[in-house]
Amino acid sequence: MSSVIKRFTDFPHWVLLVIIGSLVFIPFLGNVHLFDWDEINFAESAREMLATHHFRTVQINFQPFYEKPPFYMWLQALSMSYFGVNEFAARFPNAIMGIVTMITVYNVGRRYFDKAFGVWWALLFACSIFPQMYFKSGIIDPVFNYFIFLSLYFLFIISIKDEFESNKMRRKNHRWYLVASALAAGIAILTKGPVALGLIVVVVTIILLINRGKLNFNLGDLILWLVVIILVIAAWLSIEIRANGLAFVDNFIAYQIRLFRTEDAGHGGPIYFHLIALLIGCFPASVLCLDAFRRNPDDTHHQLSFKRWMIVLLVVVLVVFSIVKTKIIHYSSLGYFPITFLGAYYIHHLQERRWHWTWRQIVPISIIGGAFALAVGLLICWGATNVPFILASLPFIQDALAARVYWGLGEIAIPIIFAVGLIAAIVLTARDKVTAGIATLLISTCLFTNLSLALIVPRIEKYSQAAMIEFIESRKLEDCYIEVVGFKSYAQLFYKDKKPPQSPKDLDLNYIYFGPTTKPVYIITKVDKIQSLVYQDHFTELYRKNGFVFLKKNDMLTPH
């Protein structure tokens, strides 16, 4: 028996983490349609790259799309070229990024603490609710955040001195880490934009002030760092500018300013929005990290320094995205790195008996975890019993909630098992069985999240967008136009598998709505928008379903 245990403990941890990450992130990726706006938006841009073979430019509806650089769409296009144009392929790059992130944080934790610390950090990333969800999504942020963290990590390595390194080796490593940081920063900018550079600079500046100007950087380092970043960006931007002029740069900057100053597309919220989102959404890591901010005298200088960098990163994320007017949950997802680190830091000291399991962990775990279990349980009971949702006042929501969706009471086992797991975790940890208790907490949270994504989210989608996507897919083989009116969507592009335009008329809405088209024209709107259609006399209503209204253009029309 001892030999079996020894073999298990000697087994490379990173291999186990790859297996765990694969089991957590890859299953059920294509289980539900992509969601408007972001998931379908990015997947559609990748699909259009494959359709047109124009990979330098991000497009939507085969027109330049100035809101995002192309790096993430390149990853999706690569995935789609292998798996086909579907939901699985659109989300697969983030699943891989989830595994890569687990291995990266494991190695960072192992380097400055120990292997157990690295494993806990990786598992907190895999099992906390929002981090697990965003690695199973098709949004940009997992890739964007990873390269920002990587850039900061290499700068951190430069900022500390290894007493066992010779001066020659230190100078060589210093240069390579500087270049690696700049490359990572450049890729982050190519993924989502210059906000990556801003976040990195702000974090490093604050660290510089805290260290009273001592950071092992000089002016030459800064120049080299910026030159490498510029070269990375220029490798793509020079081609784009040569082809389309400065249009991308001008429009992209205007879009970033609009996000900062205004509530884009109604995504507003209070200034504490991201604080609450991270506290609730990053459960249980967010709860475990609450006691981790205090200093421990047993930590080494490098451990204290890295912890300081992580705390500064968390504060910068909270302050910056609290100031930004547009409030979307995943905007602050860079905060998952410091939160999961601080959670692992707390577990590390809990196992070393330096800290204790108290009401400060028990109460928030009970409240937040219990709230998740209760919310999902009530949702399942409501769906299974078909009780009218009396709080729905808007016509679209009323009709959407009237959708016929099968709910089985058997799914109630999901929140029940989660609740039992929470209780078991609290009891085990309180009895000094820390490893068993934390493992129970993470496993129960992971199962709860994964089963909810696999069984609950597809049912929720039936109430939101499924009727619209089903209509679009039913016309996928028909040579026709499909447009949405009164709301914003990219579904009519991606799920119609829209072909590149054969003439300018194919993109002219005035021609499509009023012109003598040779193809059928379908319009999708919502029940609360139908009365505002100024050209509804030109269309015949086909049917209504779950808040959507589907219309077809009448034959033999003349221009309006």
Task: Give a brief outline of the structure.
By secondary structure, this protein is mainly alpha-helical. The chain is 63% helix and 5% strand.
Secondary structure elements and their pairing?
Elements: H1 2-10, H2 13-25, H3 38-52, E1 59-60, E2 63-64, H4 71-83, H5 87-112, H6 115-127, H7 129-134, H8 141-159, H9 167-192, H10 195-210, H11 219-244, H12 247-261, H13 273-281, H14 285-288, H15 301-323, H16 336-351, H17 359-385, H18 395-401, H19 413-430, H20 434-464, H21 466-474, E3 481-484, H22 491-494, H23 509-514, E4 521-526, E5 539-545, E6 548-553
Parallel strand pairs: 3-4
Antiparallel strand pairs: 1-2, 4-6, 5-6
Helix pairs in contact: 2-5, 2-6, 3-4, 4-5, 5-6, 6-16, 6-20, 8-9, 8-10, 9-10, 9-11, 10-15, 15-16, 17-19, 19-20
Descriptive notes:
It is a single chain. The protein has 560 residues and is mainly alpha-helical. It folds into three domains: 2-264, no CATH class; 362-464, no CATH class; 469-553, no CATH class. It has helices spanning 2-10, 13-25, 38-52, 71-83, 87-112, 115-127, 129-134, 141-159, 167-192, 195-210, 219-244, 247-261, 273-281, 285-288, 301-323, 336-351, 359-385, 395-401, 413-430, 434-464, 466-474, 491-494, 509-514; strands spanning 59-60, 63-64, 481-484, 521-526, 539-545, 548-553. A hairpin with a 2-residue loop joins strand 1 and strand 2. The longest helix has 31 residues, at 434-464. The chain is globular, with a radius of gyration of 26 Å.
